[in-house]
Write a structure and sequence with these properties.
Strand content: over 45%
Largest sheet: 8 strands, parallel, barrel
Number of helices: 1
Order of helices and strands: EEEEEEEEEEEEEEEEH
Number of domains: 2
Number of strands: 16
Shape: elongated
Length: about 150
C-alpha cells in the first residue's frame, strides 16, 4: 500500500510506493508512486510512476511511467511511457509517446509517437512570428473598421 504525504524535500530524494503532492530535491527518484509536481536541481528518475509537471536542472529518465509537462536542462529519456509537452536539449523516446517536443535533438525508436516536434532554436522564431501576425491582424482590423465608417 502506498504512503500518502503532502510534501517531500531533501537533497537526494528516493521514494518508493509514495503518493506526494510535491517533491523537491537535488536529485529525485520515484518508484511505483505518484506525485503532483517534481522539482529537482539535478536529475529526475521515474520508474513505474506518474506525476504532474517536472522541472529538472539536468536529465529526466522515465521508465514505464508518464507525466505532465517536462522541462529539463539536459536530456529526457522515456522508455515505455508518455508525457505532455517536453522541453529539453535532447529527447529520446523508445516505445513511448509525447504530445509536443521542443528539443534540438529528437530520437524516436520502437514505435514511439510524437505529436509535434519543434527545434528549440525555432521557439524564438515562433514567438516573433506570432507577434508579427498579431500586429498585422490588428492593423488590418483597424483599417477595415475605418473603411466601414
Amino acid at each position: 500500500m502506498a504512503t500518502l504525504t503532502k510534501a517531500v524535500e531533501g537533497v537526494d530524494v528516493h521514494l518508493e510506493q509514495v503518493l506526494a503532492l510535491t517533491v523537491r530535491g537535488h536529485d529525485v527518484e520515484l518508484s511505483q508512486g505518484a506525485a503532483g509536481t517534481i522539482t529537482a536541481q539535478g536529475d529526475v528518475r521515474l520508474r513505474e510512476s506518474g506525476c504532474g509537471p517536472v522541472v529538472a536542472g539536468r536529465d529526466v529518465e522515465i521508465v514505464e511511467g508518464g507525466c505532465g509537462p517536462v522541462r529539463a536542462g539536459g536530456n529526457v529519456s522515456i522508455e515505455q511511457g508518455g508525457c505532455g509537452p517536453i522541453r529539453a536539449q535532447q529527447v529520446s523516446l523508445h516505445d513511448s509517446a509525447a504530445a509536443v517536443v521542443f528539443a534540438d535533438h529528437l530520437e524516436v525508436a520502437g514505435g514511439s509517437k510524437v505529436g509535434v516536434s519543434i527545434p528549440t532554436q525555432g521557439i524564438a522564431g515562433v514567438g516573433i512570428g506570432a507577434a508579427i501576425g498579431a500586429a498585422a491582424g490588428l492593423i488590418a482590423g483597424l483599417l477595415l473598421a475605418r473603411q466601414r465608417r
